[in-house]
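Encode chain A's predicted structure.
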Amino acid sequence: MLSHMLKAKLHMAKVTQAELWYDGSCAIDANLVALAGMREFEQIDIYNVNNGERFHTYIILAEPGSGTFSMNGAAARKVAVGDRVIIATYGHFTEAELINHRPKLVYLNEDNSVNRTTNTIPMQVA
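Encoded structure for chain A:
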């Protein structure tokens, strides 16, 4: 049996562009893609913290070090420049792989610089 698990996320990225008439995708700073262990053309889920929209698209690379998060094509209608989003990838893992699996979590500052990286999320308490 395979389990569908979080592989990586970019947490609280700030949308820098929304380009309706561009090939559908999400352009992300290539350095941040690499840091999170994501890949060009990988499917991503995007969760818009500002308006609650949740949608799928795929990654294309933006200039390394640019801090770019550009929603393109139909995805541009789901965001406004300045919105904060969570971008997640998932993978299918065997029980044996899950023993050592830890997602790559990248937390971003308001300017899309890296605040911290980790592979755990603290337990939520009431």
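The chain has a mean pLDDT of 97.
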